[in-house]
Amino acid sequence: MTTTNANNRQPTKLDYASPTQFKFGVIKLPKVEYFCTAANIPGISLGQTSQPTPLKDIPIPGDKLEYDNLNITFLVDENLENYREIHGWLTGLGFPRSHEQFETFINAGTDRFPSANATAQNRDVGRVKDSGFNVATSYSDAILTILSSKNNPVLEVRFRDLYPTSLSGLSYDQQAGDTSYLTGNVTFSYLIYII
Asked: How far apart are CA 159 and CA 189, in angstroms?
């Protein structure tokens, strides 16, 4: 029989986590990083299956994790520079006017990323053929730093191969009474995050 000491099971830190103590950084979006007002640690779930039996089916844990999206909120600056950073990223990935938009987007980021020299062939296992572009520049890495009550870093949540999937619109209104500043919401997908 295993014996446990109740004193060894007591927590050593009694401070609670504050939702305002964080810092969010994206390599590709320096101006969004500065104005970020909200970010989340996405949820994670493990699917399950069941083993049929003549009586009750037996639940069995799955083998693939699913990550929820990363959502951030940021204040929009007067010249919309941070909004345009994300808008340009989405436009480069979606190239709505011509195929050259994607090529321009990829080539513009080759000087900003440490992995810009990686190509599709040597970056992803299982790729059969090189795409001809430095696909690493279409992604970015991000770090959500959780801070203590004294604003010291406690831990980091690192997101790998992040890219935006949606950006909220901006609503202008002449009848707004109080001064309320515009905020933008952006949703990201990513390969994985590590705490």
From this structure: 9
Buried b (16+ CB within 10 A) or exposed e, 21-50: bbebbbbbbebbbebbeebbebeeeeeeee
Q: How many CB atoms lie within 10 A of CB 188?
A: 20
pLDDT confidence of residue 148? 87
Whole-angstrom Cα distance, residue 150 to residue 36? 20
Q: Find out whether 168 and 184 touch, Cβ atoms under 8 Å.
A: yes
Q: In the structure encoding, which two tokens stand for residue 81, read together?
A: 């520079």
Distance from C-alpha of 128 to C-alpha of 121, rounded to nearest angstrom: 7
Using one digit for the tens of pLDDT, what is the confidence trace for 30-43?
A: 888 888 999 999 99
Q: What is the C-alpha separation between 114 and 148, in angstroms, rounded?
A: 30
Strands (E) in 30-182, as ranges, are 36-39, 44-51, 58-67, 70-75, 140-147, 153-167
- The β-bridge relationship of strands 36-39 and 153-167 is unpaired
Cβ atoms 39, 70 nearer than 8 A: yes
d(CA 142, CA 69): 13
**Residues in the chain where the model's pLDDT stays below 50:** 111-112, 114, 116-128, 130-131
Q: Which amino acid is at 132?
A: G
